[in-house]
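Predict structure. Chain length: 278.
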Amino acid sequence: MSVDAALGAVGDAPTATHPGEDPASPQLYRELLESISEHAIFMLDREGRVATWNRGAELIKGYRADEIIGRPLATFYTADDLAAGLPARLLATAATVGRVEDEGWRVRKDGSRLWAGVVITALRDDRGGLRGFAKVTRDLTQRVQLEDERVRAARAEEAVRLREEFLAVASHQLRTPLTAMLLGLHGVHERLLAAGDSLAERLSRSLASGKRLADLIERLLDVSRLSNQQLVITREPVLLGGLVEQAVAATRARAERVGCALRCHGPVGVIGSWDRLR
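Prediction complete.
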């Protein structure tokens, strides 16, 4: 049932009756309101105190009729809304213009919160005097939760996109100058080796560090390729002993600083499958 239909049930007497039954029968009216469970529909007196209560109100708010009738509308509002005077302001607006709508957090009996869509309508007698208010509340918490999840998912997707964009751009911008630098160092290294210069060994360590940096940049690019489903693995035979020696060489300097000596033992001709580019 829509909010407008629910309000119609509050504002108008039922017209469908059993034979011989008064169309304005209070019993029929109560039965109609009790049959509506997806909306909290209840009446407030002129001071804004709960005067009636239906099954939907009990399900949504958590109060039984004997627990809530006579209590003020402010019972359902958060501390922030109470400090801002929201309940009184809504009632004043409804009394002035006839109807007011609002959405916001409301408080259940157990202290939990729900996001509620609220319509308050002023009820007047034949002479225009204010009799009270009809209030219809619909629980919209699930809608808000779904919207929050959609926003979080969109933000996560945007964060991933920005990360991939950064990785791709940064990796390419780093790789180009690094490649040129390593090529230049290789040339200098070969000339130093040919001349028997002692600086060749130091330059070898610099070249190794540059190669590790190049490998790291390539891995960053791999992350981008993997996210875009563009990563290609090309396996080919490789001497595993050489890979072990590379791993030892990469950590030897740190090991020696703490007094550890690293040595490789074992057959060097073991063949394995490896992606040389990775």
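Summary: Strands lie at 40-44, 99-107, 113-124, 130-139, 236-239, 271-274.
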